[in-house]
Design goal:
Layout lengths: L1 H18 L38 H10 L2 E8 L2 E7 L9 E2 L5 H13 L10 H4 L8 H4 L4 H5 L36 H9 L4 H13 L4 E5 L2 E6 L1 H12 L3 E2 L2 E2 L3 H7 L15 E2 L4 E2 L8 E2 L11 E5 L3 E6 L4 E7 L11 H14 L1
Antiparallel strand pairs: 1-2, 1-13, 3-5, 4-5, 6-7, 8-11, 9-10, 11-12, 12-13
Helix pairs in contact: 2-11, 3-7
């Protein structure tokens, strides 16, 4: 009798485990993030139809991109390529400049260096590259920290052009009291090079580029360093960001640092993190202006999106809620611009038609 009772209870447990939604079903697998190999051009793909996206919306999107002077376009879903197209004589192997979208590479290296104990985000820049790196009075220069350069709140004059030599970096306001889009962030590359006892290029290559299989190079152009690569290298970096700095099990950029980098970094421009633009905030400021605009940065895009935005519409969009990374490279879609343009909103209307 006891044996029969045991069998009855066991059958009930088995039956409940297969039907009760609160009990885990081992047959259900989690869709894990895909990472392309770092030593080859192989990259797995996923189809638009398998994702139940609107296949009828794809060609209008591609036509729009071609008309808007695009050269390359990639959509990743959970790491896999869903859409990859090249236009206007551009190919998979072609390199193009990241422009200010490459600022976020500097963010990444700053976070890596901080994690290695090479620098402190709250320390003043003068601690690492000496006094007199600006034309500001010493007491004002010594207010400027690593974090101020990451958040564009150095207080230096943004109307002096893009140069970063001493005479170009003049005082306007105390650090932390004014947000202004300024090329002075490049001094972070000098800080990283100094504290790592290396060069910026060598530290970048060993700490980030080779670890995720990027190609490309930094090219000095007048007063600033610009990164050039193919679109897939940009997509690799976007994928690293989407996975919170972790590449296939290796934590390359500290996750807590990236959390700070992709959230509001100061109270002057709610839509700006550490050289990353943030969507879904209540207000934003733009380069070369002190005007505060009300509303979201890109109204048609998901609220949780953050973006690397470069001159003439170089784009990395990361959307955690949708498991998406979107890349666009090319010439300016319309008029020349510093980062954000009308193209962003129009672009996202077309993307939403595809993915919704």
């Amino acid at each position: 009798m006891r044996y029969l009772a045991y069998i009855f209870v066991l059958c009930c447990i088995i039956n409940c485990s297969s039907t009760d939604p609160l009990i885990e079903d081992d047959s259900t697998t989690i869709d894990s993030v895909y990472f392309p190999p770092i030593d080859s051009d192989e990259w797995e793909s996923e189809s638009v139809s398998n994702l139940n996206w609107d296949t009828n919306a794809l060609q209008p999107l591609l036509d729009f991109l071609e008309q808007k002077n695009s050269k390359s376009f990639i959509i990743l879903y959970n790491g896999k390529i869903v859409v990859e197209n090249y236009f206007n004589n551009h190919t998979l192997e072609s390199s193009w400049y990241w422009a200010s979208a490459g600022k976020t590479l500097t963010t990444a290296l700053t976070g890596i260096a901080a994690n290695e104990g090479l620098l402190d985000i709250d320390a003043k820049i003068s601690d690492y590259i000496g006094d007199g790196w600006t034309d500001a009075p010493t007491e004002k220069e010594n207010l400027i920290t690593v974090k101020h350069l990451l958040s564009m709140t150095s207080g230096l004059d943004d109307s002096m052009g893009q140069g970063v030599s001493n005479e170009d970096l003049t005082y306007v306001a105390d650090a932390g009291s004014r947000w202004a889009y300024h090329n002075v962030y490049k001094k972070l590359q000098d800080v990283v090079a100094s504290t790592s006892n290396s060069t910026w290029n060598n530290y970048f290559n060993s700490s980030l580029k080779t670890k995720i299989g990027m190609t490309g190079a930094w090219i000095e152009n007048s007063d600033f360093n610009v990164y050039w690569s193919n679109a897939r290298s940009m997509a690799r970096f976007g994928l690293l960001m989407a996975n919170q700095g972790n590449w296939d099990g290796e934590q390359i950029i500290p996750a807590d640092f990236l959390s700070d980098a992709t959230n509001t970094s100061q109270n002057l421009n709610k839509s700006y993190g550490y050289l990353w633009w943030l969507n879904g905030k209540s207000s934003y400021r733009l380069p070369q202006s002190q005007f505060e605009f009300t509303g979201s940065l890109i109204p048609s895009a998901p609220d949780d999106m953050y973006a690397a935005l470069g001159r003439d519409d170089q784009k990395i969009y990361v959307i955690p809620s949708k498991k998406l990374v979107v890349i666009r490279m090319g010439n300016a879609a319309d008029d020349s611009n510093f980062a954000l343009s009308n193209f962003d909103d129009e672009f996202w209307i077309k993307i939403k038609a595809l993915i919704n």
